[in-house]
């Protein structure tokens, strides 16, 4: 006799409350599995199309790592005939798991650090502006055009600080007016929202919005595409409405206007990696490439097949930066090997997460390729 499988409605209801409704659009065609970059890793046998099916049944694997492996790249969404966002379905599962303490320990620590100190690095807010101490960066007071939000990684991480420092030098060279808010700024909270920590996200986002509004912020210039999508797409839910500009967009405009003229040659072959949050999720593909092409001597090459909307995630999205994966389950390893195959001397990135993920992968795999930010390369091309 065939036993009828009954959904666990209590869990299904909880998942729907957590915005998992996209699961009902899924008709199990399996196309998303073909698009998911995790399938390129031998270590993962993760049929992503099963997740909406399990959500509709209220079956959640509280022990398995699968739902924490999704990097939120949304390659699946672009392929799905029904436009299902698996990342959103996963977020619903993560929110329910988080309520019952099922979040990975490293991500839990990050959530606690952001909740108490406003950043994921367990550092004090007074250290947030140390990256800027020798640069004479003005405090944002509403009179400048842009509020520059460095992102926590360039604020606290010694390597990533160079991105923010390069950006400041470029803005000054172009005569752009900007300022930072400093100690009162808190993490944008993109990673922890995608990780399922909704309550901390809403508290910290609301605090940021109050700070930004009190300072008279209208335009936010961001270093990180993760801050970009969060300020642009998530903060309006909490009545935080700002014009958001990624540094590569502004740099390209300033180059076109003749306010930045790179003249110092960089005789290197450079491959540009499209971050999921800047490319696929925000449609910004050309600006970083044009900035790189403006540098004399620099030869821009492309990843064959896997560029622009087909880019492969660095592995740092969807909270991935904070979740430890086995070596053979890391997208960053796959991507840096692809970069080396292009023959490039430099892997250029426009995202602090990509910088961190790729530098770790290059070091772990002992590869001979340098990872540099677009901001850093432009600053060098300007002789700054
Ligand atoms: S591509 Fe869309 S409809 Fe098809 S299995 Fe995946 S989520 Fe479901
Ligand atoms: S968001 Fe990316 S990693 Fe997650 S299921 Fe979709 S394609 Fe796979």
Task: Draw up the topology in text.
Elements: H1 9-17, H2 31-35, H3 50-57, H4 75-79, H5 86-99, H6 105-117, E1 146-149, H7 152-156, H8 161-174, E2 178-179, H9 190-194, H10 198-215, E3 219-222, H11 225-234, E4 243-246, H12 247-256, E5 269-272, H13 286-293, E6 299-301, H14 331-341, E7 346-349, H15 352-365, E8 370-373, H16 374-381
Parallel strand pairs: 1-2, 1-3, 3-4, 5-6, 5-7, 7-8
Helix pairs in contact: 1-5, 8-16, 12-13, 14-15
List keywords for this structure.
globular, Rossmann fold, binds iron/sulfur cluster, 384 residues, 3 domains, alpha/beta, 4-stranded parallel beta sheet, 41% helix
Could you characterize what this model shows?
This protein is an alpha/beta fold. It folds into 3 domains: 9-99, no CATH class; 105-252, 3-Layer(aba) Sandwich (Rossmann fold); 260-381, Rossmann fold. 41% of the residues lie in helices and 8% in strands. It is built from 16 helices and 8 strands. It has a 4-stranded parallel β-sheet with strand order 2-1-3-4. Strand 7 (346-349), helix 15 and strand 8 form a beta-alpha-beta unit. Helix 1 (9-17) packs across helix 5, helix 8 (161-174) crosses helix 16 and helix 14 (331-341) packs across helix 15 (352-365). The termini are far apart. It binds iron/sulfur cluster (2 copies). One iron/sulfur cluster binds at residues 26-32, 49, 52, 80-82, 84.
């Amino acid at each position: 006799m065939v036993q009828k499988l009954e959904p666990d409605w209590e869990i299904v209801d909880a998942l729907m409350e957590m915005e998992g409704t996209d699961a009902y659009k899924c008709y199990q065609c399996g196309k998303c599995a073909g698009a998911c970059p995790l399938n390129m890793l031998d270590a993962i046998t993760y049929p992503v199309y099963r997740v909406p099916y399990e959500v509709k049944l209220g079956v959640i694997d509280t022990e398995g790592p699968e739902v924490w492996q999704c990097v939120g790249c949304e390659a699946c969404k672009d392929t799905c005939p029904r436009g299902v966002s698996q990342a959103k379905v996963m977020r619903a599962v993560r929110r329910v798991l988080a309520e019952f303490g099922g979040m990975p320990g490293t991500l839990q620590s990050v959530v606690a650090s952001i909740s108490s100190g406003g950043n994921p690095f367990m550092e004090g807010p007074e250290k947030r502006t140390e990256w800027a101490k020798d640069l004479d960066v003005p405090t944002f007071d509403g009179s400048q055009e842009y509020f520059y939000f460095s992102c926590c990684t360039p604020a606290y991480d010694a390597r990533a600080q160079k991105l923010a420092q390069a950006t400041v030098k470029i803005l000054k060279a172009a005569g752009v007016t900007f300022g930072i808010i400093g100690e009162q700024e808190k993490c944008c909270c993109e990673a922890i929202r995608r990780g399922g920590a909704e309550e901390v996200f809403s508290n910290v986002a609301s605090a940021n919005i109050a700070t930004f509004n009190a300072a008279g912020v209208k335009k936010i210039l961001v270093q990180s595409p993760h801050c970009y999508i969060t300020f642009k797409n998530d903060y309006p839910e909490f009545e935080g409405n700002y014009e958001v500009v990624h540094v590569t967009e502004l740099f390209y405009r300033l180059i076109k206007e003749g306010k930045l003229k790179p003249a110092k040659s960089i005789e290197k072959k450079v491959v540009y990696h499209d971050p999921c949050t800047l490319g696929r999720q925000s449609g910004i593909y050309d600006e970083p490439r044009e900035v790189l092409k403006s540098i004399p001597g620099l030869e821009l090459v492309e990843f064959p097949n896997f560029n622009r909307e087909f880019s492969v995630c660095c592995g740092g999205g969807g909270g991935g930066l904070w979740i430890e994966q086995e070596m053979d389950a890391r997208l960053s390893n796959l991507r840096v090997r692809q970069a080396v195959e292009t023959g490039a001397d430099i892997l250029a990135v426009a995202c602090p997460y990509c910088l961190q993920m790729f530098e770790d992968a290059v070091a772990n795999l002992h590869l001979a390729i340098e990872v540099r930010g677009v901001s850093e390369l432009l600053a060098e091309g300007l002789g700054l």
